[in-house]
Amino acid sequence: MGREIEIKIPLTSKEFDMLYDFLCFKRFIDGIEILGDDKNPCERRFFLKKDEYYSRYKKEIERKENNEPQVIRIRTQEFENERRSYFTIKRKVVEDGIEVNKEDETFIEDAEVLRDFFALAGYSKWFSKEKKACGVYCKFSSFEGVSFHLELEIVNELKYVEIEVTDTQESAKDIKAGLTEFVKALRLDPLKKDSRSWVEIILKRKF
Length: 207
Hints:
By secondary structure, the chain is α+β, with helices and mostly antiparallel strands.
């Protein structure tokens, strides 16, 4: 089980373009250095993620009453013409508008097998989303020794940036403070952080 602390912020088109220029090394931001990703140091990573959310219940109140994890998900990710699927269970807690999550995730060879199992076990797909993103790891001079993963993304046509920290022994309190300062260094307003789930964000947009 891993710990994931993240913040997401909606972007204007101008802010989105500014961050894209930063990821393309056309703009520099004081105190933040792009490290790249786990496969390609100092490289941007473009990918497409398609998520399917499953539940045994039809309503959110039923999920809470039965203590079902907030996220039971199959994620299919496409990167450099390679497709991989993962099964994820996530239990989410929001503290001061920043998510502190406990997450279990594993690679699955064939997502159809899991879909068949869900159908047999009484689970149904109740929500889906598509994310087009560019992600990099960053070093932040004000918080040494911690890698910040920055993901510039369009989710169901909505422009956002998500920044997360995983796999560190630093306290959650310190990480949350570091995320806030990181956001300020990007010239964004941390008060605009969106603590809603993607389900709430996307479904509300439909009405």
